Amino acid sequence: MHRSLLESLTVQRESPEYLQISMAAAMTLGLVPGQFYRNTKLSCINTLLTYPSGCHATCAYCGLQKAREVEYSKKNFIRVEWPTVALDEIIDRAEKVGHVERLCIAQITHPRAIRDTKEVLERVLRRLGDKIFVSLLINATGTTYQDILDYKKLGADTVTVAIDCATPEIFERLRGKPMNSPHKWETFWKVLEWACDVMGDGYAGCHLVVGLGETEQEMIETIQKVRDLGARTHLFSFWPEEGSMMEKEKPCPAPQYRRVQFARYLIDNQIARYEDMKFNENGQVIDFGIDKDTFEELFWSGRPFMTSGCRGKTTEVACNRPFGDSSPTDIRSYPFKPEKRDLERIRKQLFDYEMTTNYPDILNPSVFRYQ
Ligand code: SF4
């Protein structure tokens, strides 16, 4: 993309009049040129509240954390820059794109985030309520039960909480006191429980990131806990964001992600439970708790390896976040149904317990955008 266009789209403005949107959403809305690899289509417009003082938290793995010395609107999040666009323009454009089925409003940690989420939600649904669903990706810190009741009353379809870490120790280390960050494990689970309670079974979600230091067993146990509460897991493969405190860490190994992806699919669709699965001494899944025929059928369907996220009006997953957690050279969450050649590669990864193979990957392309 031309540098001057990128500069003009990343001028710092303020919510609720302006929102940041993912680069994929900007392409879908025709704001930036480009086509997705293998003609992937995005049916969800992912937006993010934005303020000059940025996010007031400091999660170690996040590209938006306050410690980064870059103008806030130019920071990157889930691998790419997020252009800043007027809310009215987003609504106008979304109305014209035939295949948009959902819009997601993601909060950051900021004193105005909850109030502004309600205003944006109201304005989007006033214009597009008969066409699309709206999800909220909320920050648990500062959220009350009444806020979730308000979100539901205003028309939110799904409320999702980004717990991200599988264990309390990892959560504390990467998002809590040692990071000078305000988040607490207990608060996030309490708010997820409230979301399940208010929104109902299937209308609450939990974002979890694989590869932050947990074992497969720990992550899968947490996915089961989320499902038992009535929520579904939206899974991400850890990618070291440029400028985050973890930028020098390695991405989540593909084999680890494949096994957790498969297990998540079984748990969320109630095909098997965590207790049915078996793990080796390294906490890696060695038995998914299903018979061979079921395994083969599900494996070759490719569905377990597709992005997990909120559904659309006509699609199982509207929020497919194209290449949000990997490069197109080694896709982790497939935004489309993987083909036979993809599945052959996935199979090798799924049964790789040594994890010494260096699956091809390229450097995070966003590293070079502002040089
Ligand atoms: S999965 Fe749902 S909550 Fe998460 S980013 Fe996508 S639309 Fe938002």
TrEMBL record:
User: Which GO MF terms does the UniProt record name?
Assistant: catalytic activity; iron-sulfur cluster binding; metal ion binding
The UniProt entry, under SMART domains, shows: Elp3
What are the residue boundaries of the Radical SAM core domain, all occurrences included? 37-278
Q: Which cofactor does it need?
A: [4Fe-4S] cluster
Keywords for this protein? Iron, Iron-sulfur, Metal-binding, S-adenosyl-L-methionine
Specify the superkingdom: Bacteria
Protein name, UniProt field: Radical SAM protein
